[in-house]
Amino acid sequence: MKRTKLDVQNSKGLKLQAFLELPANQKPNYYAIFAHCFTCTSSLSAVKNISRALTNHGFGVVRFDFTGLGRSEGEFADSHFSANVDDLIAVSRYMASHYEAPSLLIGHSLGGAAVLSAAYQLNTVNAVATVGAPATVSHVKHLFSHGIHEVREKGEVEVNIGGRPFKINQDFVADFDKTDLPEIVKKLRKPLLIMHAPTDTVVGIKNAEQLYHYAHHPKSFVTLDGADHLLSNSTDSNYVGNVIGTWVQRYFEPKEQVMLETKGEQMVGHLNVVEDKFTTSIQTKNHNMIADEPAAIGGDDFGPSPYEYLNAGLVACTAMTLKMYAQRKQWDLQEVYVYVTHSRKHSDDLGLDKEKPTFLDHISKTLKFVGNLDDAQKLRLKEIASKCPVHKTLVSEVVFDTTVIED
């Protein structure tokens, strides 16, 4: 995943911190904008995880900070709901001018309400997804209700929201009552995915029910069972990103994946050394994958490890070879299971007579056959399992040719 910093200004001339996350091939099929939750920033781990997951589905994703939040210019008091919507429209216009107009909007919490409102105004948006969104914009006022009375008396006060101090004024408070979100959702008439946790204590599940009621088909609901409002568990945010990426394919014309400029190669991998730990995006012509390392050794565990992919190649090739052989022989092989483990073992433990005892790579392969097979057939299949192309490659001498591409 590649990250590009964008130079976006909103309608008031304030600079918004924004980043464009790109797929491994750096050539998105479509573009999306992610709107973060109230008082959050685009650096929230859930925002990054969802964006990363969407890049694996071929999207370029813009994540940005609303006015007065994160590293965007302006004051928080200017970051009322209408300003959030204006910021979304400003980012969309920037993308339309410099890249391509975003066709998917994703919003978390109040950001979900903002993308619904923005999508109603943007003809280029083809689909919308919300996560933990309120059914009314004014719902968020309970977070600073302790300061509303004081605002009326003093004009501007400092309130504590989520353990952090923010300054708000009368215009900030009043703006949350200006938008009729239910009416907007009724008129939206665009594919809508509503995702919500039943145990959300910040924005109750009733909000999802109301949004779904207001919306017209095509509309979908996915429950985030066990998740909290901020999607603190990375498993939940990765799930959200992958569900959105899969769901939206129904409403977007599929496009052929384009490889990187290393044309003619079978596969490409990309690791953003600055942004990520070990998470590596892998792409073939038609498929995207993610490789990572376990958390125990400093990774994020977003995907299988390199050796697990090595094992996967051996497993798949073995199973396919056995199927083809059994079919050619017209044997009754109905199912095959291939269990593989890679490890490092000492030559003495393996019973090998080495002049210089040492540690060696060791792969164990266990087979299970389902079908009406006799012992002789099973023995022959065991022999064939060692003749699959990947197995032969692993036990043969391999010649590598490594080159460096100059920019």
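Second entry:
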Amino acid sequence: MITFLAALAALFIGFFIYGKIVDNFFKPTDAPTPAVTKNDGVDFVPLPTWKVFLIQLLNIAGLGPIFGAVGGAIWGPCVYL
């Protein structure tokens, strides 16, 4: 339980610290994306926000079972350490 709480604390602290570092480094703007400026209907197509998040979720959900099994087979219990 102590390991879980330490990992959870590290996750929250890392989220805020790393988020500030990335925000300062990349300096996001409200400039239009290439999907808007170069919209050709083939390679550059603007998508609604819900479709973008669904694609990202499916990519993560599809990779998890594959990488989890391969990682377990390669590294075994030393992953925990």
